[in-house]
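FYI - complex with adenosine monophosphate, inputs then prediction.
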Amino acid sequence: MFSTKYLKNILKISHSTFMYLCSKLSFMSFKDLQLNRPILRAVAEAGYDNPTLVQEKTIPLVLAKKDVIVSAQTGTGKTAAFALPILQQLFDKQDASKRGKKIRALVVSPTRELAVQIDENFQKYCTYTNLRTTVVFGGTSIEPQIDILKKGVDILIATPGRLLDLHKQDVINLDFIETLVLDEADLMLDMGFIDDVKKIERLCPKEKQILLFSATIPYKVEQLANTILTNPERVEVAANSSTSINVNQVLYYVPKKNKIELCLHLLRNTIKGSIIIFRRTKFGVDKLEQTLLKNNYKVVSLHGDKTQNDRQAALNQFKNKEVNILIATDVAARGIDIDNLDAVVNFDLPNIPETYVHRIGRTARAGKTGTSYSLCSADEKPYVATIQQLIQLQIDVIEEHPYPLDPKAKKEIHKTPGKSKYKKGRKSESSKKKKKRWY
Ligand code: AMP
């Protein structure tokens, strides 16, 4: 193989032009990104051969100390896109004066699970450096977090509420922040964290690098970026509207009242391996979980009303393969690195077609095959049309099953005059209390 230096010399081009060409031709390696040895070693140990597109585009900009807005979804390798260059910068410029460590990079994440996941990534990539990282989030005891912070860390990953709490208690000093990362900014704003985010930004020094990552860039994210970023560069890794050719997609038309029976039927006869079942509501997730447990399936669930410990335990059990079924709402599962699934079940069809693409993209990763099963009741038929329009594909309909939907069936209407279609007490007590958390 030709060395990078050799190629640059014979082509008589600068390093940045070379990087640009590499990214276009996609034969860039992590070495070409000018990462140093301890980081390259950790990356090799993680099993990464080449940088992903978002890494190719983002890492040079971060190393050049630019503010960057990156629009990329989970699964694109976006965490390493900011973690690797941040580690490199901190590693290269260490405080010689051994006076306790100062927090120099801060990553703000909307959800606790995502914060834990980002910290796991940093831990993995900093194995061969002397840099220290930790994560703080709410819903769990603050004391152990204070103990770790007092020992000193270089990188802090935090959810907004707990971060401000710890700052108020004078445990965290943000005066030395060099890089601030706002991850999943759109979700952060959806969850009502805008004021917290602005406050956190103001608590950091004026002169700093800001990296904003967001799956989508709606107007409110653009507005936030305009107020706090300086001449940002933009990286866009196109939202994937094409579904992986390795995902076998099938569709079952079924009356709403028979969805649970059909789901049980499919689990008994058709769907095997590690499975994620998506439902639209927390109530729906709980209901299906109870039914599957009663039928002796090994199942855990994920939604916003669960305690932090329950959520983390559920994720661990699923990732460690102690259970093979995870039921989740879209937002609770968002940003979480659960992939390599054998099957995705759309128990409820999403009303946003991109969500369908996102859901089924969790299976059939890295050249493997997987299947998505969508259960469609009469009222969800319009969703199938918009999904098929987006993916430019007709999803195979399976007609042979025990609970077919009458093709003429209309939307099922609950007709008790003067009464809500929802059962009394449908919302759990904790759900009613936590008005702010809607996912
Ligand atoms: P993320 O989008 O950051 O959640 O990353 C999704 C998954 O991709 C994680 O499991 C990472 O470990 C993995 N990953 C990140 N970068 C690479 C790479 N360059 N090559 C292979 N896998 C990667």
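The radius of gyration is 24 Å. The domain at 34-237 is CATH 3.40.50.300 (Rossmann fold).
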